Amino acid sequence: MSTIWTENNIIPIVDEYDVCVVGGGVAGVAAALSAARDGARTCLIEKEYALGGLATLGLIVYYLPLCDGKGRQVIAGISEELLKASIKYAAGDLPECWADKSGDPEARKSSRYRTKFEAAPFIIAMEEMLTGCGVHLIYDSRFCGVHRENGHIDGVIIENKSGRLGVAARMVIDATGDADVCHAAGEKTVSWAGNVCTGWYFANGGEGLRLRGCSDPIHGKIPEGHRFYAGDRFEDVTQHAIDGRRMIMADVMKLRAAGDETAYPFLIPTYDGMRMTRRLSAAYTLDESEAFTDFEDSVGLTGDWRKCGPVFALPWRTMMGVENDNLAAAGRCISVTNDMWDITRVIPTAALTGEITGLAAAMAVRRGLRLPELNVALLQDALRSKGNIIEKP
């Protein structure tokens, strides 16, 4: 067979929302929180049974810095709220100087605003936040496509145990991490095929429970027998999971050979560990060379988790769809170059872009506007009023 024909093309609409967020990673959680708190009837669609994506199910349990590495906070709002939620039910290692607003300014220059967290308590804390503000969670539902006419998405198509269903929405936010909605809706996207094998896991044994961060070198020569992977090819996604588990077992064997004879993999990732897969190519694409650059439509800032100093303004144009007037992208999906992608893909910036897009979507719905019609100055003012930092320190 080369094709399969289906008899029934009628898809029932199960509900209608002001804002539909697709993807329940940290970006999607922030987007749904932001939209719901601004009064929008909001749903969040997630293919797994838990929130957090790579951060929790992928066991990448580091909430990277909200500061510039020189003592100045550059990200606040929901991103900061989620950092605190990540250690609500299990203590992290948040530096004392950042624990409250009166922390020692000098100490902050040598200690970044970040923490390590435990995955399960963070999942529970995020779920409580979303249900507490009325977000309708839809788990175990995979995004399949959109229905759109004249550059406007009328509904999102999902599939779950109830079959193939439609969710009508006035605004849609792509927080899939893979620009799945953007791609299905006809937006120009850019793919990345340079992912390496990863296998973060918790080992247990005679030396106790500990996190092991296994990964091929991101820069330089890839070890023999390993390869690069593309996150938008199903064959690569499958092989990446298999190779990651082989990497984990190879690491366990090393632990045993080094003297921990009872070592074993206590907890392994249940989520794909690829760092960069596919993103939106929007009206503006931000580059790493644009540190400290001002933009009239800046709606937030981010530092560089890899080094101290650089601060980047994030233009609203990097998050808005071009071919669809009610589609925005958050998290790993925003429009940045490959170099900049490594900076913006992480938890703090993902949560920030989620809050921005969720708030913009809710504001547009309330005013009866399409996203391109929303006055960016009003969005900037609304973000400031919620504690976000727009201007560079």
Task: Give a nutshell description of this structure.
With 393 residues, the chain is α/β, with parallel strands linked by helices. It contains nine helices and 16 strands.
Textual characterization of the structure:
The chain is α/β, with parallel strands linked by helices and 393 residues long. It is built from 9 helices and 16 strands. It has helices at 26-37, 77-86, 105-108, 119-132, 180-184, 234-257, 338-344, 347-367, 376-385; strands at residues 13-22, 42-45, 62-63, 115-116, 136-138, 142-149, 152-160, 163-174, 189-191, 201-204, 210-212, 264-267, 278-280, 298-303, 311-315, 327-329. Strand 10 and strand 11 (210-212) form a beta hairpin. The longest helix is centred in the middle third of the chain and has 24 residues, at 234-257. The protein is globular and about 65 Å long. The mean pLDDT is 94.
